[in-house]
Amino acid sequence: MSSLLVDDIGELVTNSAGEGAGEPLGIRRDVALLVEDGRVTWIGPARDAPAADRRIDAQGAAVLPGFVDSHAHLVFAGDRAAEFAARMAGEPYTGGGIRTTVGATRAASDDELRATVRRLRAEAMRQGTTAIEIKSGYGLTVADEARSLRIAAEFTDDTTFLGAHVVPAEYADRPDDYVGMVCGPMLAAAAPYARWIDVFCERGAFDVDHARAILACGQAVGLGVRVHANQLGPGPGVRLGVELGAASVDHCTHLTDADVDALAGSPTVATLLPGAEFSTRSPYPDARRLLDAGVTVALATDCNPGSSYTSSMPFCIALAVREMRMTPAEAVWAATAGGAAALRRDDVGRLRPGARADLMILDAPSHLHLAYRPGVPLIRQVLHNGVPQCRP
Ligand SMILES: [Zn+2]
């Protein structure tokens, strides 16, 4: 058994309720943390630190749990930089560009898709993301959805079948047939590689009846539910997710009081994706309203080539604080423990004995700097499963 001591931690964010100060972050000061076989096994005053095979000196910096990015679309080909430029020049976002990426993805080889996921996964890791969810959704044929998930599963346990991203062009005049295929042969081919099922429940994508049918089919074969909901306008997606016991409803940009009430009385997490509002120049979700109602909030990147091409959780934290009136502590919690809640995982997003040793050492004395110093590469070192990750 090899051991590694992270010593001289000035500020440790544990996210463990009742530990230390700074709720909800459970901040402890002047501590050390011991890692054995990929797990945290001890946290305590630096002066009491046990001997270890190796030592990392944090030099008084802040140490946080690794980010848990619970919403990412990494299996795709091509880019949509020109669409982004046109949007910044005034064209509205409708979601129609998804079909552009579908065409490029179908034409790509497995190795091309795998290389893109590997590149983006590494990019996210350098920015502190130690756990990530990856969706399919740019194949939209039985074979292309199955291979997207097979490739995604090489990089994460949290794979999500999103065959119901949009109705592909070849089914445009017969969406019922497409839903039947998603629930039938596509789900059968995808399910062995998927933990979750997701639907884009939105005007122009899937209506509530189609969304309910697809999610129910996924649940019937043991997949957990997530929903893209209420991004572009008000709608039934959030309440459908709560009704079905979804782990998370994602976007939540346009909510009614009934939506907020439903979330507040449920275990469903509201995952906010401010990179999408930034990149589509849209109004941000009202995080303050959700938090004040007692809803569990997560932050994630929505990394995708159309509406949010960022893998940076620190960027999302900065947006959440500046534009959505979350406190820095709420935003950091939402990007770590909140993401873990959205994936129903208790092994990541917190630092306590027994947790996976996923953490980051900042080039800063406090978690506050993640929002205070936007756009600055503040992640000095990342440990994933207790293993230090190389900087490029
Ligand atoms: Zn998404």
From TrEMBL:
Binds 1 zinc or iron ion per subunit. One of its GO terms (biological process) is L-histidine catabolic process to glutamate and formamide. It catalyses: 4-imidazolone-5-propanoate + H2O = N-formimidoyl-L-glutamate. Its cofactor is Zn(2+); Fe(3+). Transmembrane segments: none annotated. Residues 249-367 form the Amidohydrolase-related domain. Pathway: Amino-acid degradation; L-histidine degradation into L-glutamate; N-formimidoyl-L-glutamate from L-histidine: step 3/3. Its EC number is 3.5.2.7. GO terms for molecular function: imidazolonepropionase activity; iron ion binding; zinc ion binding. GO terms for cellular component: cytoplasm. Fe(3+) binds at H71, H73, H228, D302. SUPFAM superfamilies: Composite domain of metallo-dependent hydrolases (SSF51338), Metallo-dependent hydrolases (SSF51556). 4-imidazolone-5-propanoate binds at R80, Y138, H165, Q231, S307. Coiled coil: none annotated. N-formimidoyl-L-glutamate binds at Y138, N304, G306. It comes from the Bacteria. Belongs to the metallo-dependent hydrolases superfamily. HutI family. Catalyzes the hydrolytic cleavage of the carbon-nitrogen bond in imidazolone-5-propanoate to yield N-formimidoyl-L-glutamate. It is the third step in the universal histidine degradation pathway. NCBIfam families: hutI (TIGR01224). This is Imidazolonepropionase. It comes from Micromonospora sicca. The lineage of its organism: Bacteria, Bacillati, Actinomycetota, Actinomycetes, Micromonosporales.
